[in-house]
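Per reviewer request, we include the raw input and output of the structure prediction for the construct analysed in the revised manuscript.
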Amino acid sequence: MRPTLAPLGALLLAAALAAVVPSPAATAGLAQSIASAAKPSVKTVTRTYGAGPVRPDHGGQVLEIRFKGKQGDRVMVTRPAPGNDVDVWNGDAELTGQRGTVARERRPWWRLPRDGWYTFRLEMTYGKQVPAQLTKLRFVDIERDAPERLLPAKRGYVWAAGFEVPKSGLLSGTVLSSGDHLLVRPDKPALLWADRYTLLLGDDMPATLGSPSGYPRSRAQHAGAVMRLLTTGGVASAVTPTRVAGVLDGAPVPVDTSAAHAVEIVLDGTAGQWFSTSEGSASGYATILQGPDGKYVDPTPRRDLWQLTQTGQSRLLLFPIQGEESAPLQLSSVAVGPALVPGAAPTTVTADPAGRGTILPVSATLPGYNTLKASNAGFSNASWYAVLMVAHVGAYPHGCNGCGDYDYVGVDAGHLVSNPGAGRAVYVPPTNGTGSVDLQLLAQP
């Protein structure tokens, strides 16, 4: 009987050992858990200005950066970014000194109140592993019409280039470099990404960047206020913009894009008059229009198409793009056709003999959407199209179909019926040919 029971005992012993000894996969998981538990939840390091970034060991780890500074130093925390972008560290940040917490005072930086040791305590949201760079700001004021300033780039440092609002005239400030800048304004705690390089300032007018999505709706700035562009480096300058006279359907306006500074074009016109800045011009120009009263004119979804709001002398502020070739700017008047009424019979629109675009006001707009329908297209140039758009952009959120920047719907030779949109005008750009098209607005419930 004893030999018969031996295999059974061996099986029972193996089963017992299997229950006690973990599998290789379980052993690896246990080792990983022990290693994670061994890493501290708070990582404290000491850094000096210009030293490298601090990287967390695992997600959710709190970083503490100790450093020694002097009274008056402006410091902040940035995220190492590709290229020369200025990327502010966007987690929870707290700065403490020997006498407690240091207030940030509505700016992305802190000002050290005295000499001594300080600690940044950084906690990233959502448990992400984001490196943090101790950064010191170097303030420099860029004088108007003075020689340009070279701002050398250095790790752990950011330039705060200051541009002061002039008492008279306009000031065009630029920082020519690769990467994005950040605009710091005295009236707003929030930063503004400056993907353009030109900042235009004037007394009693909002700071203007010329960005297609940066239409100035903020509070006016007054003489003495200082705007600051945060940049890793580049060449900074501030000049009085070149002022030239523009005539609708007249000679093209010469534009020099070599310095990427703004150009001020003055033109006379009457209230309600439409004009275009695109035909015969280089692509890439951004424009902003001010009426005779100094107030900005609401842009249309097509940023090359404007309507004057008052009779008198308006000024068109033009922002060249760095790297674009210089080219003259043609100011072309736009013909005004008959008004379109939703639900009415089609209206025949004929190509303007002078080669201009045509604007057709939308009257008696009904609640809901309108659909633009085209038929009987007979233009000699098959690349024609028409757009149903908002004539004046109000304070609408982006993405609202038919009521915000770039929100318009159109018809062309391949798609004769548009998507619905709440339009106030229909624009037919120059066709560079002859012919006509029937346009009709169909009211939608």
